[in-house]
Amino acid sequence: MPLLPSIDLSAAQQRELLAIARRSIVEGFSSAAPLRLQLATFAAALREPAAVFVTLNQNGELRGCIGSLQARDPLVQAVADAGFSSAFRDPRFEPLQAADMDQIQIEISVLSALRTCAVDSRADLLQSLRPGIDGLLIEDQDRRATFLPKVWDKIPDPEVFIEQLLLKAGLPAGHWSEAIQVQRYTTLTFADN
Q: What is the pTM of this model?
């Protein structure tokens, strides 16, 4: 059974969320905090709890990506928080500067619920993968990492995808253990520009 994103959003709602992420970043330059929203002013779909990631690209290169795998906060606030964090708190990058804003593309991924992959081996996992569709979360030995489905655009080979995900988690590329846990999810992804 295919996984579906946790929410259906109209094109207008997607544009509204992209604008909120951008406003939260712009607000962050002066307030050093994410935009706080009056939730009652938003449509019910935007107030539903949702797991989201906000990805920032600058001139086609990753510039920040932060989010949550669990639906804790209302979607609209989760987007504002993740947008701010992607710009200022991603430890892989220096904080964004105001002069960079006109070069930043914002992409939002709304995640489905996580589903456990019942696999007994690395070969089972590779066979069950749906490139371009599945996001993956791997956990083992107190280490964890995720790749959004969008990462398939840069790493289309399933074997390399798994190796890079293991490395991201701090595990060896060929790692497999009986304790490893793998979960999959899908996303509704949209971007500005």
A: 0.92
